[in-house]
Write a structure and sequence with these properties.
Number of domains: 2
Family: Belongs to the bacterial solute-binding protein 1 family.
Low-confidence stretches: 1-25
Radius of gyration: 23 Å
Shape: globular
CATH architecture of the largest domain: 3-Layer(aba) Sandwich
Largest sheet: 10 strands, mixed
Structural class: alpha/beta
Mean pLDDT: 92
CATH superfamily of the largest domain: Periplasmic binding protein-like II
Subcellular location: Periplasm
Protein name: Extracellular solute-binding protein
Helix content: 40-55%
Keywords: Periplasm, Signal
Number of helices: 20
Distance between the termini: 50 Å
CATH topology of the largest domain: D-Maltodextrin-Binding Protein, domain 2
CATH class of the largest domain: Alpha Beta
Number of strands: 12
Strand content: 15-25%
Length: 420
Amino acid sequence: MRLRALALGVVASLAASLAMNLSALAGELTFWHAYSGQKDKVDFITYALDEFAKAHPDIKLDVVAAEQSAYKTKLNTAMASGNPPDVFYTLPGGFLGAFVAGHQMYALDADLAKDGWGESFLPTALAQTSIGGHAYAVPIDIDAAVFWYNKALFAEKGWMVPASYDEFLALCEKIKADGLVPMALGNKDSWPATFWFQYLEMRLKGSGLVSDIVAGKADTSLAPEATEAFTRIASLSSKGYFPVGFNGMSDQEANMLFLNGQAAMMLNGTWQIGASADAPEGFELGFFPFPAVAGGKGNPGDVLGGVAAAFGIAEKTANKKDAVTLLRFLTSPAVMTKYVELRKTMVTVKGATTEAAAGPVLYAISNDLMSKAGKLDPFYDTAMPPKGTDAYYTSLQGVLDGSVAPADAAKRVEDALKAK
């Protein structure tokens, strides 16, 4: 009986192995993405996968789509259970790093070295999906955070774009005195306020701090400038420069205040261009960089800009050849230029963010701001490990509503970042 059971087990194992190999030979791949729930994202992925099907009819894709928040949970569960998708959307930094640490990601170095594929990417972008000297995902797009303003409203009121942080604060007072909200902010999901802390930290101390801490550089710290950055943010909140109830307001609700002229400015990512597409008649979107802070040690030309999305391959994937073919197609210049056209977002492939596809505002950011940046500092919340991100979000929320002291918030974030 025992021998029979053993034999049946061997047969079952061989059958499973054969099925897996036949699946690989048949060119079948599971493909997961987080582009659900937003029209421009859906339009892009639909276009890309339809074109891939035409170009590679021999490779069949089992596509699973989810919205960003639900997707993170779904992917983490699949990875933890040892049943990952073959090719999948991932975030750079700590999110990707957790999978790399678990030996769950296929290193793309050898593939990127072929036919100039690796050289087609912006080096700063590929660096953000590389860990320990190895590339574990291909970067898709780059978002940069800038100040957005209502040009028509500024012209009507005679307001000037600020060149320094002190000028910015003076402008906020003028706007508030005029009965408008100086800065639109909807921080219900925690991430929108992170741009304030990171830019202040960059201007006060410098760029690359969180990346260095995550990489294990023992002499790197956010302090003492982190306390000052949190203090300045608390001041913005207490002076009423943000909308009433902003910590419970969504980013979309804050955007409506901006588009309808109830708020004059907004610190947000380059996706704001797409979000402003349905603005009322007469609205004209303008941008300016986060200004220099007096006495700050950081380079005022540095930009908060990082890879927003990437795609990788699971180490367990049997059919890596077709998986790489899919990644190469998704990051081809033609597909990436279509991405720019549909989403009005900068991409990581050189030359793909064309003026015709991007439009004047995005192209100006890409050509004038990004190309001249001293450094691109990746988004802290994606660069941090999950525990660091949680501490960052809750501390920032607390500073904004006055329940957490700036010095305590700075310590919490630092401790979470350096926790083993």
